[in-house]
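Notes from the 1:1 (GR / supervisor)

We went over the backlog. Supervisor wanted to see one worked example end to end before approving the batch request, so GR pasted a single chain during the call. The sequence is below; no edits were made to it. Supervisor asked that the structure be written out right there so they could see what the output format looks like.
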Amino acid sequence: MGSVIRSQAADIPHNMTTTAFDIHGFRVVENMGVVRGVVVRSRSVLGTFGAGLQTLLGGNITIFTELAERTRQQAFDTMLYQAHLAGANAVIGVRYDANELMQGVTEVLCYGTAVMMEPTAG
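Structure output shown during the call:
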């Protein structure tokens, strides 16, 4: 599967995702299993050079922060798209993991349990 565009992930609202295993006001009626989004990114030579300059000044290294945020967002959106394909309307137990595959190349994984939820009576 190629890169997932944000519009593909819009089928599951972010308020129907959680790191918890329940969503207040809803109950799980069907479990579709684990879904995941994987992104592998490398640092560019220019980005690494720019970040090196930022380290001289100290503080937040914005070039790497922005890269990390974009990578996590793409992994999250890909996970939501996979949940949508499974027929889910929510993802619970969302987690992230990251591994360095080789010098300067990092895998970011976002995963959770795709579920069908319905509002609780009350």
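Supervisor's comment: The longest strand covers residues 26-42.
Batch request approved.
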